[in-house]
Design brief:
alpha/beta; Rossmann fold; 2 domains; six-stranded parallel β-sheet; five-stranded mixed β-sheet; 9 helices; 39% helix; globular
Length: 297
């Protein structure tokens, strides 16, 4: 019998760009086995890619997942409204859920900031692409010098913003601003998302402005650098571009280049979501395996 730990079987809801990139990334996972990708259109290109990768597919949406007793973990890469409809069904079926939509039903989770405190939650939310890129920086600032206000401006290539992103833009903005406060730690926050139509497409670039008190520039810089290195553990293309402390005003700019797994490298906004989902999913899978081991011992 192999000594390798059991891989947790999972399903992906939503075979769009995000769901397909996530599937490609999870093919390399030693902790997760994607057993099913489900959508609502049988001719979806994402479902065809999944079939070519040897993954079972279905056009029955969430119903296909509910009927699988072997699926413990579900990644929802659909949209805010579909997730609000499917979340209670998945909860009743006892599925653990990683939500990549801005529905924000479960607690916000950002790897490197607060993942360890939410491993027992049935549904965790990844905030937004802007949130995954900027909330770690806000947190790094706030832990070094309490932030009374933080404003984040996420600029992404228009070419990387598909129909789902555009339809949910207001929810993305509200969810990101909320995450800046609830997870980042700022007393108040604001989020702005800019779609840049430049050709060739630009890389994702995010600017964080924060107001702090009694800040030590060395401590602040060290905290930000350490957080950038933490994010780079699962998003190698996450880079610090600029850091400045001027009185009580901190400015940090980061850039996100995608891994190029399925999506183009300029789509760092989408890549950081799928990379975060893999990181969260693998931690949840390990937690599930430990829980099973504890029950069996």
């Amino acid at each position: 019998m192999s000594g390798q730990p059991r891989r947790v079987r999972a399903a992906i809801l939503g075979p769009g760009n995000i769901g397909t990139d996530l599937l490609v990334k999870l093919q390399r996972s030693g902790a997760i086995d994607v057993a099913l990708m489900a959508g609502i259109y049988a001719d979806s290109p994402g479902l065809e890619i999944a079939r070519k990768l040897g993954v079972e597919t279905s056009a029955d949406g969430v119903q296909a997942v509910l009927g699988r007793d072997d699926v413990e973990l579900v990644f929802d890469a659909t949209g805010a409204q579909p997730h609000r409809q499917s979340a209670p069904l998945l909860a009743d079926a006892g599925k653990r859920v990683v939500d990549l939509t801005p529905a924000a039903i479960g607690p916000y989770v950002v790897p490197g900031v607060n993942l360890g405190g939410h491993l027992d939650e049935p549904n965790v939310n990844l905030v937004s692409c802007g949130g995954q890129a900027t909330i770690p920086i806000v947190h790094a600032i706030d832990r070094a010098a309490p932030a009374s206000y933080a404003e984040v401006v996420a600029t992404i290539a228009s070419a990387s913003a598909g129909p789902g992103t555009r339809q949910n833009i207001d929810e993305f903005t509200r969810t990101t601003a909320s995450g800046v406060v609830k997870v980042g730690g700022a007393a108040a926050g604001k989020a702005i998302i800019v779609l840049n139509p430049a050709d060739p497409p630009i890389l994702m670039r995010d600017t964080v402005y924060a107001t702090v008190a009694d800040a030590d520039e060395g401590e602040l810089g060290s905290s930000v650098t350490a957080m950038v290195e933490e994010v780079q553990r699962y998003v190698p293309g996450f880079r610090l571009v600029f850091f400045d402390l001027d009185g009580d005003q901190v400015t940090v700019i980061v850039e996100v280049e995608g891994a190029g797994d399925f999506l183009p490298r300029y789509a760092g906004n989408l890549d950081i979501m799928t990379a975060a989902a893999v990181r969260v999913g693998e931690e949840l899978a390990s937690h599930l395996r430990r829980a099973v081991g504890a029950r069996d011992s």
